[in-house]
Amino acid sequence: YFFGCTGIGRSVAVDVVAGDEDWFIAEATKVGVPISYVIDTHVHADHRSGGLELARRAGAPYCLHESNRGRTGFDFTPLTDGQRLDAGNVVVDVLHTPGHTPDSVCLLVRDLRRGDEPWFLSPATRCSSAPSGGLTLRGASEKWRRDCTTACIASC
Question: SS3 for 137?
Fold first, then answer.
């Protein structure tokens, strides 16, 4: 995922797959927004992460849940349950959601220019109003993720 705010110039890269680092840097350059945070929602066994490499190349903090202290062979910026990250008009609330892995987090993302309602919940879900007035969560395909990225960052 890649989202952020062009008005204030901050962005967030989430769950970067190794080999996709150039794509994230190109998208950030295309919209003129530096990458402010690189976050892995858990230490990945389901794909090889490119998060640490992207953070290094972008000069951004690499973030994991704090429960990974002492469990990794590299430095990271610890995330805590309830922490809020500032990405301009976009705010990211960190939710510790152990289950998939003990260190799993979800990110509840709000675009404050649209209001305080959630914009989407990551990983792999997007919030939308359901006919019942509740929220539905839809899985995101790779094509949807790529197609949505520019719209997400440009809409702030």
Answer: strand
